């Protein structure tokens, strides 16, 4: 009889797992879960999605996973307009998958898992509808209830449709879906995408009206017309290179709001430095190839008394236009790139920018310029390798300030944010006091909190539905892993836990190294019982532009870190990258 090579390899994996030593259960994780993907790219490691398998195939697959030591399964039960459970409340009726299959795959999966003493906790993408073309297809060609979906400040929903949590109709619809899912013999529900898709989202007419009723201001005016509240603003350049990459804009908005700094966004294509106040403040973040005409305009602005703050070294522009740009920031073009790593920040210089800042540890990458021109520039902070971290330069009547490291993506460290807040507030103060600026910052903070509250209310609603139908039933949520993420997507999950809306939290700790993982775990554990935390680890990594499985060494080491932190368990994302090498390692560690 012919045996496929993959099955033969698995046979030897299971045989070897019996002979190899394993840590005892007390030394490892109580929860050992695996995500079962329902959509996305096909994989050689999972030739069919879980819902495509026959009853016999599901039975064999569950038995195989149980033999490898998994005791929980997290099947994704919604994706891109498709429902993988029976429901009569589908907003996209052509997407109710069980209606067109010979079996109800979720019911079969639950039955087979329970035979193996495994739990099934559906993974439910909640406030996201999915890619617009797929959702429309699942709806029969036309998008129903278009006012249900979030939009940005320009009224655009983006490539991925997401639901507006402030809409009562959306809440009622999602509540019905939860009730239908609870009709199954599931062991819990894990909410995913229980958030906005970024701080640039949430500007539906309904949401704006509700906020205005409570706070007396249209949130669209706060973002697009802040000059009606204050003339003393930080003008933030929005580079054309950010188009299609909303996470830069979303993070910038979050950082400025967290710092309570009033600001106005200005598109690069519409930027006119001569229109800025003569003693104004300009912020340019993560913009590396600044064009010569813009540099000349900024130089004139600074010489006339303005202040410009660069976030991350504009290294490409420095190589092309060193004379003009170097004069602004007081540096030469010598530079190097350093990948994201832990750095020690030490403070130098006595200035309002450095007041109250102790430095400390940062986790960041850097397109770092290394050589200052000491006759004009001062170093206010350095990294432990001697590289200038914050440079303050005088040019004419104004100043150029460089934060010589990345602060908008994958950044962690209070010291950098404190310095940035001090720099922006100092610059605003040089233009004089403006009570309107304080009011604007307070309204921006209220708009942030208002959107957080909408998501929290939805979670509370789900808790009420669950308790009415199945009191005490497990409700968890897959959540963002770092502090800054909370106010970027308005997901105050520690509040949900304090209110007992959810019993378990599943932080998406998809990190590539120990420093990132431990930094995230430290924040997650602050004020939270580790036995209520089930970190999610990635079974994938990006190598040369391709998505491939992580190495068994990386996965094993990250599992050891979780044991060290005393968490309840882990969930691995996802079965699409469950390669034979990983199966061998996990079977050795967990298998029976």
At a glance:
The protein is 37% helix and 20% strand.
What does it look like?
Helix content is 37%, strand content 20%. Mean pLDDT is 93; it is low at 1-26. The longest helix has 35 residues, at 435-469. The protein contains 18 helices and 24 strands. It is globular, with a radius of gyration of 26 Å. The chain is of the alpha/beta class. The strands form six sheets. The protein has a nine-stranded mixed β-sheet with strand order 11-10-12-13-18-17-16-14-15, with helices on both faces. The chain has a five-stranded parallel β-sheet with strand order 5-2-1-24-21, with helices on one face. Strands 6-9-19-20 form a four-stranded parallel β-sheet, with no helix packed on it. Helix 1 packs parallel to helix 18.
Helicity range: 25-40%
Rounded mean pLDDT score: 93
The gyration radius over C-alpha positions equals 26 Å
Major sheet: order of its strands? 11-10-12-13-18-17-16-14-15
Q: Which sheet architecture does the biggest sheet show?
A: 9 strands, mixed
Q: Report how far apart the termini are.
A: 28 Å
Which word captures the global form?
Answer: globular
Topology:
Layout: H1 5-19, E1 31-36, H2 55-67, E2 72-75, E3 78-79, E4 82-83, H3 105-115, E5 119-120, E6 123-125, E7 128-131, H4 132-138, E8 160-162, H5 168-181, E9 189-192, H6 205-215, H7 219-224, E10 234-238, H8 246-258, E11 263-267, E12 281-285, H9 292-303, E13 307-311, H10 315-320, H11 322-329, E14 335-347, E15 360-369, E16 377-383, E17 388-395, E18 398-403, H12 414-430, H13 435-469, E19 475-479, H14 483-489, H15 493-498, E20 504-507, H16 514-525, E21 536-538, E22 540-543, E23 546-549, H17 552-565, E24 569-573, H18 580-590
Parallel strand pairs: 1-2, 1-24, 2-5, 6-9, 9-19, 10-11, 10-12, 12-13, 13-18, 19-20, 21-24
Antiparallel strand pairs: 3-4, 7-8, 14-15, 14-16, 16-17, 17-18, 22-23
Helix pairs in contact: 1-18, 2-3, 5-13, 9-11
């Amino acid at each position: 009889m012919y045996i496929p090579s993959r099955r033969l390899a698995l046979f030897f994996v299971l045989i070897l797992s019996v002979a190899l030593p394993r840590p005892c259960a007390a030394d490892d994780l109580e929860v050992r879960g695996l995500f079962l993907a329902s959509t996305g790219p096909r994989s050689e490691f999972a030739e069919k999605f879980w819902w495509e398998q026959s009853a016999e195939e599901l039975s064999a697959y569950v038995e195989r996973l149980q033999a490898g030591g998994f005791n929980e399964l997290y099947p994704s039960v919604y994706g891109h307009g498709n429902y993988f459970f029976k429901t009569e409340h589908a907003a996209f009726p052509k997407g109710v998958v069980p209606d067109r299959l010979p079996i109800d795959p979720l019911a079969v999966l639950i039955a087979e898992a329970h035979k193996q003493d495994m739990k099934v906790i559906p993974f439910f993408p909640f406030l996201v509808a999915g890619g617009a073309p797929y959702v429309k297809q699942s709806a029969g060609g036309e998008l129903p209830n278009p006012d249900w979906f979030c939009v940005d400040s320009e009224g655009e929903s983006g490539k991925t449709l997401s639901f507006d949590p402030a809409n009562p109709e959306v809440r009622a619809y999602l509540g019905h879906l939860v009730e239908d899912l609870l009709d199954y013999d599931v062991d819990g529900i894990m909410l995913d995408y229980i958030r906005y898709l970024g701080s640039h989202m949430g500007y539906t007419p309904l949401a704006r009206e509700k906020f205005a009723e409570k706070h007396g201001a249209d949130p669209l005016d706060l973002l697009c017309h802040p000059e009606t509240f204050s003339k003393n603003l930080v003008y933030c350049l929005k580079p054309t290179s950010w188009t299609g990459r909303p996470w830069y804009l979303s993070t910038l908005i979050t950082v400025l709001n967290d710092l309570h700094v009033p600001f106005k966004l200005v598109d690069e294509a519409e930027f006119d430095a001569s229109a800025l106040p003569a003693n104004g403040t300009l912020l340019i973040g993560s913009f590396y190839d600044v064009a010569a005409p813009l540099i000349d305009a900024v130089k004139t602005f600074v010489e006339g008394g303005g202040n410009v703050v660069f976030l991350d070294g504009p290294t490409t522009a420095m190589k092309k236009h060193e004379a003009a740009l170097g004069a602004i920031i007081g540096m030469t073009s010598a530079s190097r790139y350093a990948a994201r790593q832990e750095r020690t920040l030490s403070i130098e210089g006595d200035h309002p920018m450095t007041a109250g800042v102790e430095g400390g540890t940062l986790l960041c990458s850097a397109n770092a310029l290394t050589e200052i021109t000491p006759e004009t520039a001062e170093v206010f902070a350095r990294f432990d390798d001697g590289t200038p971290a914050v440079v303050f330069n005088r040019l004419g009547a104004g100043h150029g300030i460089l934060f010589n490291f990345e602060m908008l993506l994958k950044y962690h460290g209070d010291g950098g944010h404190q310095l940035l807040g001090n720099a922006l507030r100092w610059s605003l103060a040089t233009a004089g006091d403006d009570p309107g600026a304080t009011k604007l910052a307070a309204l921006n903070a209220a708009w942030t909190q208002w959107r957080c509250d909408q998501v929290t209310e939805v979670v509370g609603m789900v808790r009420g539905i669950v308790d009415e139908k199945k009191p005490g039933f497990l409700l968890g949520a897959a959540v963002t892993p770092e502090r800054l993420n909370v106010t970027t997507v308005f997901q105050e999950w520690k509040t949900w836990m304090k209110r007992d809306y959810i019993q378990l939290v599943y932080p998406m700790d998809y990190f590539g190294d120990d420093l990132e993982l431990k930094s995230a775990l430290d924040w997650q554990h602050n004020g939270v019982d580790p036995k209520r935390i089930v970190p999610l680890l990635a079974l994938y990594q990006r190598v040369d532009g391709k998505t491939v499985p992580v190495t068994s060494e990386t996965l094993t080491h990250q599992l050891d870190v979780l044991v060290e932190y005393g968490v309840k368990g882990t969930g691995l994302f996802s079965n699409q990258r469950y390669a034979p090498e990983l199966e061998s390692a996990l079977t050795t560690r967990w298998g029976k």
